Amino acid sequence: MSFTLCNLTVEDGKKIQGYLDLPFTDKDKLPCTLIYGKKPGPVVLIDGGIHNAEYVGIEAATRLANEFEPEDISGILIVIHLVNVNGFKARTISLCADDGKNLNRVFPGDPEGTYADKLAYFMEKEIFPKIDYYIDLHCGDWFEDLVPYIYAVGNAPEETVRKSQEMAMAADVPYYVQSEYGSGGAYNRAGTLGIPSVLLERGSMGLWNDHEVKDSCRDVHNILKKIGVLSTEKFGRILQRSIPRKLHHVHYINAHVEGCWFPEKRAGDVAQKGERLGVIKDYLGHVVEEIRAPEDVIIIYQTVSYSLPKDTPLITYGHYEDCIDQADGHDHDHESGHSHAESHGHDHFHTHDHKNPEEMKYDHTH
Question: 291 phi and psi, to 5 degrees?
Answer without folding.
Answer: -105, 120
